[in-house]
Amino acid sequence: MIIDTDTASDDAVALIMALVNPDIEVLGITIVAGNVSLQQASINARYTVQLCGQTIPVYEGADRPLQRTPARAEFFHGDDGMGNMHYPVPEHPVETKPAVDALIETIRDNPGIILVTLGPMTNIANAVSKEPDIVNNVSRCVVMGGVACTVGNITPAAEFNIWCDPEAARICFHSGLPIEMVGWELCRGEANLVEAEIEQIKDAGVEGLGEFAVDINRIGYQINRELLGDPGMALPDPVAMAIAIDPDICVKQSRHYVDIECHGELTRGMTVVDQLNIAAEGGENVSMWEPLVKQGPPNVTVCWEIDAPRWKALLEQSVGRRFPG
Questions:
Q1: Residue 291 counted as domain residue
Q2: Which of 29, 56, 100, 108 has the fewest CB atoms within 10 Å around its CB?
């Protein structure tokens, strides 16, 4: 696995889930600006790697979107991206190789690799634009991004990661990558961690992982309940990582043509899912009428529902694992 992330509070929990899993070999972590600046996201990733007792290489990439003004989400994650916990600067160093080169080389050298994206897709877009053939070596590209026919979390129509750099997302969604879209909506409702479950995660954790996972998400927990009206703590990136680790956590999925809105005044970053295959080339309903816009064949596997208890069990198991060695 290789992971691309704009490391803030929920990204760090997702990293832990992969780093401590004995069945997952993380070959590298590439950093993109998004939730926080590139430099802060790099610090947060390296601190998390160090906390897990590992030396996984961390590579820094794009410090801004392809065309847009950079946007941040410190209001949700804290000034440091980690719930304003202000952990020490990590000893784990950053690699000198650029993230795009690391992505290209790692994917090319490891046919069948799983690519997990937890932030804006700028690094991935730059990599597949530079070397389009690498998409053939990716067995799964699990994307925490977008919303499938539902409400957004940064605008009424869009999820933050896609909204930050819609042009990059569009390049990736049309690149041939085997994308599995794990939308923000999947972390809501039953998938939220309620108070008793949060305490259970803290109690189950070893080597400080449980408390770390809860502490860094404390600001998001408050916002999620008070402003969004959800029942507890939402962890979108860990949900996506859970599906990357255990695909059976996604209990309902289907293939669709998905495009990214880049020009709409109200809908920038919207993941437009052709749920009824009305306009998809070869779609079963395309003969019903002549679509206004001819689109392509299904290009994305959309996850619609998850097994919430199974995802929570994997999270608890992850923070309860002792470090290798």
A1: no
A2: 108
